[in-house]
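does this look right to u?? adenosine-5'-diphosphate version
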Amino acid sequence: MRKVLLAIKGLHARVQNQEILHGLDLEIRSGEFHVLMGPNGSGKSTLSSVLMGHTSYEVSAGAVQWEGKNLLKMKPEERARAGLFLSFQHPREIPGVNLVSFLKSSYNAVQTKDAKISLFQFKKMLIDKMSVAGMPLGFMNRYLNVGFSGGEKKKCEILQMVLLEPKLAILDEPDSGMDLDAVKDICRVIKALRNPKQSFLLITHNPRILDCVLPDYVHLMVEGKIVKSGGVELAKRIEKEGYVNFMKAKGLKIL
Ligand code: ADP
Ligand code: MG
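got this back:
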């Protein structure tokens, strides 16, 4: 049996005094690929922020264990060092910080080794990682996300995942705003990274991406909790029927 990486039990969380997560349960084991779908506003990005330790989100009940330890007690940087990674749905632009400095700082910050990598060694490694992520080398000296197209911002998030090699990558709609070729590129990168130790939680509305990444589990999230879990067939049914019709057919509450 694979080891449990992340165990979420009865998680309630609120932002600005409004409860968004209402008792969410989810377990992810080492090497598993999970997909999270759900209507806009159901709390998928909120879950990602809570897992990463965003300070605007307050956990009001429930527990989250990471490799058996209390994740909620860990600072965001400790979570990153422990192997948790989030690619943002809406990456921020940071003028004045170029991509290579940002990535080098991130890389050094999650490394547990004492010796920090030199800029020369880092650039050498980054060239390889950029080619894996399909990101042209010309981006290296540009300010982080400034003037990037929607698709380029998402590729830059993927590059961070490739570089940091997390145990669990939470990818929040990495395919939104991307053209068809770029979605294929993302599928190729994810497939290349899959191995028995790498877990994914992919948030997407796009069933086409699931044909290529072949997830182990698909979950449907509505109003702050997971209301249905299954395999790829669940995503196919949701694609055919839409969220509302699917929930009606299953006798699930529609809000
Ligand atoms: P999803 O990612 O499933 O579309 P979100 O987690 O982004 O859903 O949002 C769920 C609900 O929480 C929405 O009603 C959204 O407006 C609210 N919400 C999320 N983050 C914040 C925030 N920082 N401030 C206020 N409301 C928020
Ligand atoms: Mg979202």
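The CA atoms of residues 214 and 232 lie 7 Å apart. idk if thats expected tbh
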